[in-house]
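#struct-pred

JT: dropping the chains for the assembly here, can someone run the whole complex?
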Amino acid sequence: MEPLIRLESVAMLYGDNGTSAAALRGITLSIEKGEYVGITGESGAGKSTLLTILGGLQVPTSGSVRFDGVDARSLTQDQLADLRRESIGFVFQAYNLLPYLTARENVMVPMSPVRMGSGEKEEKANALLASVGLSGKEHRLPSELSGGECQRVAIARALVHDPSVLLADEPTGNLDTASGEQILDLFSEWNARGKTVLMVTHNPANLARATRSLRLRDGQVEEDRALRFLPAGPAAV
Amino acid sequence: MNIRKLAWKNLLRRKSRALFTGLGIFLGIGTFVALASLTGQMRQAVQDKLDRFGANILVVPRTDELSLGFGDISLGGTQVARAKLTMEDEKAIRSIPLKERLRLVVPFFLTAADASGKDIVWMGMPAQEIPSARPWWKASGSMKLGKGEVLLGSEAAARLDMGPGGTVTSGGRTFRVAGALAPTGEKEDGMVISGIDDVQALARKPGAVTFYEVAALCKDCPVEDIVTQIGGALPGARVSAIRQVVESRKAAVDQFRRLGLGVSAIVLAIGGLMVFVTVMGSVQERTREIGVLRAVGFRRKAILSLLLWETGWISLISSVTGASIGIAAAILVAPLFGMARTGAALPPAILGVAIGMALGLLGAVPPARKAAALSPTAAIRSL
Ligand SMILES: Nc1ncnc2c1ncn2[C@@H]1O[C@H](COP(=O)(O)OP(=O)(O)OP(=O)(O)O)[C@@H](O)[C@H]1O
Ligand SMILES: [Mg+2]
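RK: done, full complex below.
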């Protein structure tokens, strides 16, 4: 069976006029359905870059990326956008909520280009906010929410289209320990339902719930090991 | 939540920026609509005048300027009629080669005379020619003038405090007031109108004519030729086509109109540029937000339409308010140009809104395309 995401000899070069820097150099790995991968590494190791490629935000300079067996290079920009909308959810360190929208409106943003009754959209957003413990705060603006609450709104937004993969870049980086724990609880809960989580983190403690640890160094995989076994099958390749 | 609403919410967030974005369009459309409807009205007014002058050739006695001067220094002058017109001249006018083209030849005789103790100008004209020579007159009472009857211009009626059925005395005679005219905006408002023989008799100048109005039969008839031929038939008269006078006014209005449109075009071009600059700035400011939208699955087209909706809302609002203010300004200013009419303001307003929308969207297309081409990775680049 095809892995969920497959990278082969992926390299990423930034800058095109002479001063090009390699952010990734020859990464080969597979992500299986249901994994919870913690990605660590020093600053500048290429973690965020790897995440953008795994999430179909950009296509690597060389090497191949396959989503469910489909080569990313064969997809148009619009098809990549559709893939992100339907299969991938993003959570960012800086929440990236739209400050002029309420919590519920932020959750509805990914549904904006979709034809659907506004009542239906609102119900869906309310249910998602309830699932991250934010019932009653649907009409608050991000500025009226705590950092942890903002991040939970962002998670609700990422889950709108019921993606199969959740990508998170330092989701707890701006949060205190307690709020960070709540976020990690949500990830675990979601992973327990058989969904895939890929999380970049600086904090080794955050790896406690992951099934697999991936450590990068200078754009290469320094270490890739299973932390615990998935109920369904082997974690590491 | 859909893209249209998202655009609207974003505008509300930055009201002052939105205001500034729309300012140029607002001013441009305001100027355009105000000037377009004002000059439209002016044209209409001139055209009305042109149509109302059924008689489009005026025949007056030729006058010689007797200048009393010393070198270039003028000490004033006096006009002396070289030859007077008489009722006989009608025959001469009617005998020109282009005589079949003449619809009306109407003699007028003007004199200042006493009317119930007040000095008033009396205008005499053949009573039976009133309906064809002055079709726009409206009167309370009757417009049919019998012998010994007069019509009062609106101001004259007010001055004499007299209406239909009353009487006016002059030179020992008593005239019955047949009717009072509604205001026409012309000189006859202040006059007493009567049969030409009656007025000639009052002035003791039987057969005298102050001027002839000649109406040609068609719109594009050879007015120039008729003028020349009447001039030849009446060497003592000055013949001029009224149409020329009015047409030169029309040309002046047209020039003013072109100037106005030029000014609005410049303001509008600046308005379009303002949209371009502000939307470009907002795109640069919002790379991350746009990246987030791209990351959550907005296609490039969705980003494009988001920005076009934003500018569309701004353009719509600013051109509608601009057009309304423009119409209001035109209505307020119209009396200064001697116009009471306020019609014909809607077409320029509709055109203005369409131009404003088109311009706003045009100015927003390059920045919107730039936004759509932004990389979704901008979202993940943390601080
Ligand atoms: N858009 C870009 N243009 C040029 N160079 C870039 C760009 N993005 C990243 N880089 C470079 O690529 C390398 C990897 O960056 P990346 O952001 O993936 O690191 P990271 O592991 O996420 O670091 P951090 O922990 O600080 O977030 C770095 O040297 C960085 O300077
Ligand atoms: Mg990073």
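JT: nice. The pocket of magnesium ion (ligand 2) is lined by residues A 47-48, 169 (CB under 6 Å). The two ends of chain A are 13 Å apart (CA to CA).
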